[in-house]
Give the backbone structure.
Amino acid sequence: MRVWKVLGAILIVGLVPLRGSAQTPSMDQVVDRIVTQEKAEMQMLRQYSPLVETYIQMLRPDAKLVSIPAGDRYFLGKARLANGVDLDPFAGDEGALRKKISGVSGFFGVEFLPRGFLQMIYLDTNGFDQQNYRFDYVRREFLGDVRCLVFDVTPQPSAGKGRFMGRIWVEDRDFHIVRFNGAYNGSSRTNFYFHFDSWRVFTGTQQWLPAFIYSEEGEVKYAVTRKLMFKSQTRLWGYNVGRGKQEQELNKILVEASQPVKDQAEAANDYSPLQAQRAWDLQAEDNVVDRMERLGLLAPPGEVDKVLETVINNLEVTNNLNIEPEIRCRVLTTSTLESFTIGHTIVVSRGLIDVLPDEASLATLLSHELGHVVLAHHIDTQYAFFDRMLFDEKETFRHFGFRRTPEEEQAAAQKGAELLKNSPYKDQLATSQLFIQALQDRAKDVPSLISPHLGDRVPNNWATSSPVSAARNSAPDPASSQADSSNSAAKAKIMAALPLGGRIKMDPWSDELTMLKAKPVSVVAEREKMPFEVTPFVIYLSREPSGREQTGLTSSTPAVSAESKPDIDNPADPDVTAK
């Protein structure tokens, strides 16, 4: 009997914790966990210094398209999260966002502050808790395949200014805040806090890291009668910049034979003067490419590079080219529209790939850069000396430069035209013409977007003297085969250029790029085309750490873009740097 009593006691005691763990936590307990996790998130972020890119498009009303770009601002810098909301601009971008937008007679004006954009990765840096906020549960909701708890958050009356008010999405496994949408309170006539939508994504380190922010304002009033309309995007990446690849290589196991096998005659190992020069050129090229990748300005080799190299291969094969060393393609991680060559490496910016409408347009761009390679427009071989790579990362745009002379550009354009005429794309150049025309039409409204950091300005390097110009007469009108009654309908469906974010998504941890896999969507109105424009983020969140599965950008348009949150402040105001 005693044995049974003891066993019964053990069973009863063992069941108590199980019952306790099955109990649903109270709302206060859930909120406490959210607050605790957000504090841990802020502390965790202090170890990182990601790259931060902010792009803003000012808008003006349009009777047909609702609104269109009317000027822009751009900023690229490196966050110092250990110091709070701190940014070091890359040389050449110091004043891009701080440029004043003038009002009446140039006396009144406002300016965007880059730190205001970065601040939007945080809900509140000074007390996100139940003492300062009220939490109202709304519902459960899926963001991608991550189930979230949704709360409305409002500051307590005594909390003061600069507090967040809006909605938060909290994943229900560990209670990380993965999205928040709203604004900071306390705007005045000299300090403006804008509405924003901030997203965090899951990375291979089992962490949720800030990655994308979108902001939009319809009518910010300043200078009594002036109004400011804008849309903006901020991207963060390079959290693990320059470290992942080296760690993988260090951990590789290499086994060497005690007596290496010799398959070639000794004489075959010598370098001729021409081979030595090519090796020296390649060393300079490799030094630059490796340095830019370590800085987070070049994405690591991946899926998108292979797409570009396939087009290059099509151009080479149809023109009977045998180029040594083999041409490589890499992607510049920034949104600015630019392309250039580094020796035998062709570099195209992420932003430029994003807005290209089709493969023929991509081939037009690459044929021009291939022209530089075929004509042996070399890189500065001084980069082969490694000490030239030892410079402050903020000086990158001053230290590197790959712009070509007008004569080289003209020669590359002519050679590119020849390559296109023999290529599989020779009868598909109509969309390239439309793209160039759309870019020229918008150039005056998006000067920051088309201002290159390292290469040549896109309208210059393949518009007036581009391969398309040379092949223009042979390119058919995109809608010429349609009956007159259906011409307008056919043209309405043609996408001359995509919005920003229309092709590529980027892993903020590893900088890995993958092609956007979105369902095709029919354009039903002219205003849905949005060439070169900023659009909101809609992110498919996942707990998969793999860069290929981690995030997916989707949109109701053929493209999706990133976003940002800015502050517009009067620098004379004492609180200008506070938020």
In short: The longest helix spans residues 273-295. The CA atoms of residues 521 and 558 lie 6 Å apart.
